[in-house]
Amino acid sequence: MAGGAGQSHPQSPHACRRGGTGLLLPTYKRRSRALGRMAVRSEGTNSAALVHFTLVLLLAAAFPAHAEELPADAPVAPAPARRHVWLALGEVTLANTAIWSVNRFIRKTDWSDVNPEVWKRNLTGSFEWDADKFTANQLDHPYHGGIYYNIGRDNGFTYWESGVLTFLGSLQWEVFGENNPPSTNDIINTSLGGLAIGEVLYRLSSMILDNGATGWKRGGLEAAAGLLNPGRGLSRVVRGEAWRVGPTPREWTPRHFSSFARAGYLQEGDAVTGQAGQGQLLVGLSLRYGDPFLDEFHKPFDSFAMDASFITRQAHFLSQAEVQGLLAVTPLVRRPQWQVLLGAYQFYDYVDIGNYQVGSQSFSGSLLYRHVLNGSLDVRATLDLRGVALAALSSDPSETNERGYDYGPGLGATLRAALGSWPWEYVGLEFKASWIRTLDGAPNDHLIQEGRLHADIPVFRELGLGLGGSIQLFRRDSLILDENIGPQANPRFQVFVSWH
């Protein structure tokens, strides 16, 4: 899969080169069992996936906030779309072949030199844990999984069916697209991350498309949606949907949607050494799609939230990103003033703060609570009990891992509470804790914690302007055999102006 580029440690003379399923992405280094390990740190994030991720949020921020009332005779759910199974498989193969051809014949990368002997080895050999950069594995792979995913979604597949296609697309690339052994973490990050990011891209591109438009307007809308969602754009062109006139599905426009931004000053530090980092500018972008308390729920991600923070320091431009999508929900208690729901969520998390890095794919069982105080003012709280399918967590290089981060599954819990008026949270509190068991890396377990207190107070509500700030603390405790390693703690303080 595709890799982020930037500054890295000196390359081992035995290091193999690796690229991936990104268009014209810089190559990066990867471990091969036969060739030994090498040190790889995420010192740069100038990858194509990061550029596109930023574009997604900027385009989505242009959508106006809205809360619509459905007519009484509106259908609760559309008829199932026809599935184009073989066409979807062909489009995934076409995408992989086209990207491999660019890397092999134009960029002439070493890792793309494949042949039947390599394919046989990859088909019969074992999987490995690679040593790619943190950004490549935790950002680029999920993004490219979203391309596979959206080929499936646009060909009539459901959320779960598209997940199967995403896995097959990733496996096809790992076996046939490069001469390195297939990677366990690539398959997991591409498949699960592709589910979360892919469905977000599908929903946002649906809000742009208008099947009834014609002429220049239709062309502009299709181009914008394709730029936002390349996998779906490819599929619509292949099937002729990009110019076919017809009805636009009602479900493409959510009842509740809001995007908002904040800009201000950020100060980071290291609580262990007492050193303060250099102050810098911060830009944050957030999306809220649907509402589990106010909307009917029919399909995964009928309600989701997406948040990202960007800072001016070049080496860590994308500081934090999170996607949380509601997979299923059922009411436990419904009263006029308060509700309790039982739900399930999928999470994609990415944190890159100085030398503290965490990326994970996880699922949860969740309790959701809402109490209406006055009008639209309410108090909300959520308790998530998470199962972490795979987490990448920064650690000191050791004799078993010079990558700079460990891989493993784990368990976690999140507690969130907020006072506000949808979608504006005036005051909120959040605490996360996760235990990670290392499968590849240093022989240790990790306990990671994050606490956050934030406020965003309306100043000119009619203009959507507010003033706010937040205090965050990221902490990692590692238990490594025969070593005494203290905790790592990174506080953050920010003040900002918000626009809703």
From TrEMBL:
<dbReference type="Pfam" id="PF13084">
    <property type="entry name" value="DUF3943"/>
</dbReference>
<feature type="region of interest" description="Disordered">
    <location>
        <begin position="1"/>
        <end position="21"/>
    </location>
</feature>
<feature type="domain" description="DUF3943">
    <location>
        <begin position="127"/>
        <end position="230"/>
    </location>
</feature>
<dbReference type="InterPro" id="IPR025079">
    <property type="entry name" value="DUF3943"/>
</dbReference>
<protein>
    <submittedName>
        <fullName>DUF3943 domain-containing protein</fullName>
    </submittedName>
</protein>
